[in-house]
Amino acid sequence: MILLSLKDAMKIYQYSFMKHPKFGLDLHRDNVDIDGVAILEKDVNLQKKTALKFDFYALLLCLDGELIRHLNHYTYTITKHTLQLIPPNTIYSFENITETTEIYILLFSESYIKAYQEHHISPTIQQLFDYHHNNLSPVHLSTSMYTRILNLYMDINTELHEKQEGHHLLIRLIILKLLMLLKREKMAQKTAIVFTSRAQHITHCYLELIEKHFLEYKKVSDYAQLLHISSKHLGETIKETLGKNALSCIHHRLFKEALYLLEYTNLSIAAIASMLGFQTPSEFSRFFKSYHTMTPKAFRLGLFH
């Protein structure tokens, strides 16, 4: 699985951030120090961006504006004073609703947190991370909680700029505090998914399995077997809950991965075709064109014009 590192992501998005920001790192400076953690201010005016995946955590605090955020097969509407954590290896994209959206972005790697505990994570902290991996929902913060969270972002920003003794230790502790406060808010707001029917539960499990196995399994029957139901039952269930056929869900996930690999890696089109399980580049090209009306080569060339 090819994931963007923290440094790679900063290079890609460098020119999406303003110079000399009042808050966060200035990505336009030479030799920006990104040692497993970064904090940024983003005035989002892009309307849409190709989905990407990274090997670090992103904790996003929306100060103003509104957008739609896609994480794996979930879609969330993000509004003012919303907090959300995006774990590593999550396919992520967004679309603006308002013209601009102001967001504070806290990025940190798992290894950065592990360094606090001599390169391993205690069971309690691991359970905290596992909780957030299994519950991607954003939370809307009350005025008092928003102020509390905002102040913690400010504290991290101060520590990164002043670099006083023990600043990384303090930043790690603040990050853990933020994650615990986010968990409390998720539990209080009951953001965990509740299924009102067996059909909804089957659909959720199907989409989760696609996310885990789309490079390995390409047939609906493969997933039906994993779910211990018939292909016919699975197909009828997906049609009932999502209004589309079950195979299209697999193909849609493959297409998102293709877009990501074409835009964010230097892999050849033949290598991408092979990685996605196509027998030939021509077969991959036909598949891609059915979704995007252009070939993979034309799409990649268009990125640089």
TrEMBL record:
Keyword Transcription: yes
Pfam families per the UniProt record, alphabetical: AraC_binding, HTH_18
Domain HTH araC/xylS-type: 204-302
Alphabetic keyword roster: DNA-binding, Transcription, Transcription regulation
PROSITE patterns: HTH_ARAC_FAMILY_2
Keyword set includes Transcription: yes
GO molecular-function term, one example from the UniProt record: DNA-binding transcription factor activity
Recorded superkingdom: Bacteria
Name listed for the protein in its UniProt record: DNA-binding domain-containing protein, AraC-type
Organism of derivation: Sulfurospirillum barnesii (strain ATCC 700032 / DSM 10660 / SES-3)
